[in-house]
Write a structure and sequence with these properties.
The complex is a heterodimer of chains A (about 210) and B (about 475). Chain A has about 210 residues and is of the alpha/beta class. Chain A is about 30% helix and about 15% strand. Classes of the chains: A alpha/beta (about 210), B alpha/beta (about 475).
């Protein structure tokens, strides 16, 4: 293996929707801490929203992720401050492994949005009213496609196209296929080393390595 | 001309280049890692055949899964043992310093960094942990990152990041007796909201902040993220330098202290720095703050009434209603008298020495309520050792508290320390999210350490200022 990783350009994401209603849905809700006692992200998908989906006896509760009609959905529609709290990348990893490719919401917690970007998952925003309309539409049209155009900053559903916002850096990173930054940043290793040498607190041994 | 805020200056000193995305590539001065969020990143490095670029700027500890009772190896829980072994292997292979439990230096990552003098003003500090904002108390630029970003930092020593705005939060006046740093930050979050800080870094300033010791400043910066701000900081001052001077790092290298001090002084915000927003709060008006809901923003003064959802802004009403149902509280009530089953004094917010000392002053000569299970979990082995030498362990144990070993413990219930069923917990930690403390029906009330101690004694949420014969000064 080498550090040349193929990074796909993410210009569009299309699929049917799944509405997850509620503000301040934290990453402990998205993936409870007890499922993080693992050393890989494999298999996290089935634990997404676990405590909201199952009771103490593992019986299903009412939750969109349990509903048959949303099982093939890939575009999640959420409200405000989604993904707040813990920085655990396990949260977007679990959603991605459940089948989510894109998230449309009122607003996102910063670390969560950054973690999504690192996985190539767009987090696009629109105002509260627009989101609620979209959630209602998804509820009525669970099998209909939603198209998220990251480059044009639009979402098309039910024959209608609406404007959404994609953070500039996120849009550029996704559209140009540079959202996985490891190789890109590694190519600047010389400048990084120079920076290390300039900083007064970095030991000379490091600075000269 | 003004060079701006600490944030501007530290950013500029660490900026390597601007990436094609428009993000800046920032040099990372200290990368802290722990067992929960780093193993996958090491796995990614291996897949890509990459090595750790700056192991000497990386430091590891174990905190989330470590048992706080029996720490003999192998750990009783297989998954915990596996995570620990993985971390041991990774740090050994990469040559990364590890404050493991045998070192006597182990503890919560946000306690040990400052303790050892790794955390310094003007450094960029990252960790796969949202409470990394804690280190901002020293005038560092510190923030939590995800695992793919850990991979980036391990592989390159840098991170792709967008510059944010700065909001200065000025706490004027003097805090009254019984009011602590924890109350200040809970008040800030309840006023500005859990997403009020999204897009911002918080600069905490003002008389009430300046008069706090480093531990109090850490409690405040720690919870910046609960207000949506990924980072928060306090400008370094004499209090900061005094702390640094007595750490191992500078005791061993006193010349370094003198050498670096001018740098530290140079990165403090200029008096005429411009801020994107300024918020002022009169600290003298604050009282102990407790949460009534399931987000850290749902806090009120101990004498204040729980708000009716319909009186809140429309976007907060729904969350409030669900929170009140979960917590089983009614609008119009105060939180005083709310029955408590568990008292947890611990976490990266409030498990440092002064926290444990203040709690001990409350419990000394008293008994934990018969219906309460109370535990003290020191933030680090060093905190534990000093506290034990001072006799704090004895005070707590005589009162009926369990005295544990260092770790994150019941803040997030990743080890055996968890709430059971619908237990209500008076907690000095940072998050009251549903399920956070290990039981999805558990109920968490956030408060300062003395309030936790008081609740343990009375069995209910109690205004510590009203306990008799208590010296709060």
């Amino acid at each position: 293996m080498s550090d040349e990783v193929d990074i796909p350009e993410v210009t569009h994401e299309s699929g049917s929707g799944v509405p997850i209603e509620g503000n301040d849905i934290d990453t402990d809700q998205i993936i409870p801490a007890r499922f993080m006692k693992v050393v890989t992200f494999d298999g996290l998908g089935e634990f997404a929203f676990f405590d909201l989906r199952f009771d103490d006896d593992d019986n299903q509760k009412e939750h969109p992720f349990n509903e048959e009609r949303y099982q093939d959905s890939s575009v999640m529609v959420v409200n405000s401050n989604f993904g707040c709290g813990s920085s655990r990348e396990h949260a977007p990893q679990a959603l991605m492994r459940w089948g989510i490719d894109a998230i449309i919401g009122e607003s996102f917690a910063e670390i969560f949005a950054g973690n999504c970007l690192a996985l190539g998952i767009p987090t696009v925003t629109a105002d509260s009213e627009t989101i609620q309309e979209l959630q209602a539409w998804v509820d009525e049209n669970p099998n209909e496609e939603i198209d998220v155009d990251i480059e044009a900053e639009t979402v098309t559903y039910g024959g209608e196209t609406i404007d959404v916002t994609v953070d500039d850096a996120q849009r550029k990173a996704l559209v140009d296929g540079i959202w996985d930054t490891t190789a890109l940043m590694k190519s600047n290793a010389g400048e990084v080393q120079k920076k290390a040498e300039e900083l007064p607190y970095v030991d000379d041994s490091t600075a000269s390595s | 001309m003004s060079e701006g805020t600490l944030y501007d200056k530290v950013w500029d000193r660490h900026k390597v280049t601007t990436l094609p995305t428009g993000q800046d590539q920032l040099f990372v001065g200290l990368h802290l890692i722990h067992e929960v969020t780093s193993p996958q990143a090491f796995g990614m490095l291996e897949e890509r055949d990459l090595e750790v670029a700056y192991p000497e700027l990386t430091h590891a500890t174990v905190d989330h899964i470590v048992p706080t009772s029996d720490q003999s190896r192998p750990y009783e829980e297989d998954s915990a043992e596996e995570m620990m072994s993985e971390l041991e292997q990774n740090v050994r292979d990469a040559g990364i310093d590890f404050s493991d439990p045998n070192s006597g230096d182990q503890g919560i990552v946000h306690v040990i960094g400052p303790e050892q003098g790794l955390t310094q003003p003007g450094k960029t500090i990252v960790c796969g942990d949202s409470h990394t904002s804690t280190h901002g108390a020293f005038g560092a630029l510190a923030f939590g990152i995800g695992t793919s970003q850990i991979r980036d930092v391990l592989a390159t020593g840098t991170l792709a990041f967008e510059k944010q705005k700065v909001r200065k939060i000025e706490i004027t006046g003097e805090l009254s007796d019984g009011v602590e740093a924890k109350d200040v930050i809970l008040e800030i979050i309840s006023r500005l909201g859990t997403e009020g800080g999204v897009g911002y870094v918080y600069e905490y300033a003002g008389e009430a902040i300046e008069s706090l010791g480093m531990e109090g400043r850490m409690s405040i910066c720690n919870m910046s993220i609960e207000g949506g701000a990924r980072a928060g900081y306090v400008n370094p001052d004499e209090t900061t330098y005094e702390w640094l001077e007595q750490t191992d790092h500078f005791q061993e290298n006193p010349e370094k202290f003198e050498e670096l001090k001018p740098y530290w002084e140079s990165i403090a915000s200029d008096d005429d720095a411009e801020y994107d927003d300024v918020v002022t709060i009169d600290g003298s008006e604050l009282e102990p703050v407790v949460t009534w809901g399931t987000t850290p923003g749902q806090g009120i003064g101990i004498s204040e009434e729980i708000p009716a959802p319909e009186d809140l802004p429309a976007d907060k009403a729904d969350t409030a209603e669900r929170a009140q149902e979960h917590m089983r509280v009614e609008p119009g009530e105060t939180m005083e008298g709310y029955d408590i089953d568990v008292a947890f004094l611990g976490s990266c917010t409030n498990a440092r020495l002064p926290d444990l000392r203040r709690g001990a002053e409350i419990v000394e000569g008293r008994q934990v309520d018969d219906d309460v299970r109370a535990l003290v979990v020191p933030g680090s082995q060093r905190v534990q050792e000093t506290a034990e030498a001072e006799g704090l362990k004895d005070i707590y144990e005589e009162a009926g508290f369990e005295w544990r070993n260092a770790g994150c413990s019941m803040c997030l219930g990743m080890n055996e320390d968890q709430l059971e069923g619908d237990e209500a917990c008076a907690s000095s930690s940072n998050r009251n999210f549903v399920g956070r403390q290990g039981s999805k029906d558990g109920r968490t009330v956030l408060m300062n350490p003395r309030m936790v101690a008081a609740a343990a004694i009375t069995g209910e949420v109690t205004d510590v200022r009203e306990l008799k014969e208590v010296n709060l000064a």
